[in-house]
């Protein structure tokens, strides 16, 4: 059984109710559910939530909500891995055999079904005991990152020895794109750091936007209006 787990707690602070706030005319979480459905990768798509309204919206758009997430996994300090591990263990405890589990974020409106499929294919081909996850390059070389002195406000380079190097000669750096993470059930149950020895599916920067603040949300809306991606997909 291939399982998709979409974590969506109700108590988001920086963007209240962000998981079901309207984005592009639909609840934010609907975009992730639609991409999961359109990928045709999964035997079941579930939402792990502690919130009745999120559960209702998720079911309306085609996901299942087989359990209520425990309160200790729904506070401001709950991480993704324990939440997905809880879902994996719940299925194992109910006699279900899982072969692969994908964590798909509820606030990933630009995730593409084809990428979800490719992530699964890479997991299958590599026989990884770790994860396949989406990543993208930093827009600027991190070797030239600046810090500001908290007292004087003056700027200093983190790596001043890199100042004289051409940007094209600096090694590219990548970061988590915040869309999805494919892994084996035991990898979710045993994992610590998701990224160590895991395989990235590298996406172009223009298809990636983490959504944690109001500024992030505004940027995502502008990206949607400018590029129009996912509009061609039918949300169930």
Properties at a glance:
236 residues; alpha/beta; Spore Coat Polysaccharide Biosynthesis Protein SpsA, Chain A; 2 domains; six-stranded mixed beta sheet; two-stranded antiparallel ribbon
- The CATH homologous superfamily of the largest domain is called Spore Coat Polysaccharide Biosynthesis Protein SpsA, Chain A
- Tell me, rounded to a whole number, the average pLDDT: 94
Number of helices: 6
Low-confidence stretches: 232-236
Kindly summarize this structure in a few lines.
The chain is an alpha/beta fold and 236 residues long. The chain has six helices and ten strands, in the order βββαβααβαββββαβα. Strands 4-1-5-9-6-10 form a six-stranded mixed sheet, sandwiched between helices. A two-stranded antiparallel ribbon has the order 2-3. A two-stranded antiparallel ribbon has the order 7-8.
Description of the structure:
The chain has 236 residues and is of the alpha/beta class. 29% of the residues lie in helices and 20% in strands. The strands form three sheets. A six-stranded mixed β-sheet has the order 4-1-5-9-6-10, sandwiched between helices. Strands 2-3 form a two-stranded antiparallel ribbon. Strand 7 and strand 8 form a beta hairpin.
